[in-house]
Amino acid sequence: MMINCEILRKHADPIWEANFKHPFVQGIGDGSLQIDIFKHYLRQDYAYLMGFARFFGVAAAKGETLAQMQTLAKILETTLNVEMDLHRQICADFDIRPEELEATRPAPYCQAYVSYLLANAYQGDMVDILAALLPCSWGYVEIANRLKKIGLPEEKHYRQWIETYSSREFWDLNEWLKSEFDRLAASVSEEKAQKLQDIFSYSSLWEYMFWEMAYTRQGWPIAWE
């Protein structure tokens, strides 16, 4: 069984189409998303990015070559200093202070998704790590570019979100991740190929659940201090 990014994407297409058609994503695209929902997303995505940065830290430590480690470290730097800075800038417009972001507790689906990524990072090899990662990195780039082709919304924060994830920088980093996956997966066994497809599909499903978490403003059923 051969496996590469094209095959991963083809098998997970129903999930990816559901992700794109989710009302949260469509609301970003046409500017109709309620601001309170977007604010909940920003807080939770900030918590997610904290875990995502740790994921890249483990990935970089497991790098097999200097070039691989350098690129993964660059993505870690982009996460910490581009994506998270974008969140802080937007949150400031909504009077959400940095200390409030830092204190955000992950909602159930956010916590579960981060845990899934970290489990693959700690337990898997580099090709497992890339299979777990691609639905987030590639998914955001694809969604943003598809929304941009339809037309940018007037709401400046949603427009900025689309422009950020459709930027050349994010595109180039994602293309490297895809090419690296294809290189490492070229000679894997049939059993390993199926495992990689499963990892990719599960991460794709977690992307959907993250949109759902944001849209429903999911929290924990029991409050605690």
Notes on the protein architecture:
With 225 residues, the protein is mainly alpha-helical. It has one domain: Heme Oxygenase, Chain A (Up-down Bundle). 80% of the residues lie in helices and 0% in strands. It has helices at residues 5-11, 13-21, 23-30, 35-61, 66-93, 98-102, 108-123, 126-150, 156-165, 168-185, 190-215. The longest helix is centred in the middle third of the chain and has 28 residues, at 66-93. The protein is globular and about 50 Å long. The mean pLDDT is 93.
Computed CA radius of gyration, to the nearest angstrom: 17 Å
Taken from the alpha-carbon principal axes, the silhouette is globular
Q: The biggest beta sheet, please?
A: none
Level of helix content?
over 70%
Order of helices and strands: HHHHHHHHHHH
Count of individual helical segments: 11
According to DSSP, the number of beta strands is: 0
Terminus-to-terminus distance: 50 Å
CATH topology: Heme Oxygenase, Chain A
Structural class: mainly alpha
Concise synopsis of the structure shown:
The chain has 225 residues and is mainly alpha-helical. The protein has helices at 5-11, 13-21, 23-30, 35-61, 66-93, 98-102, 108-123, 126-150, 156-165, 168-185, 190-215.
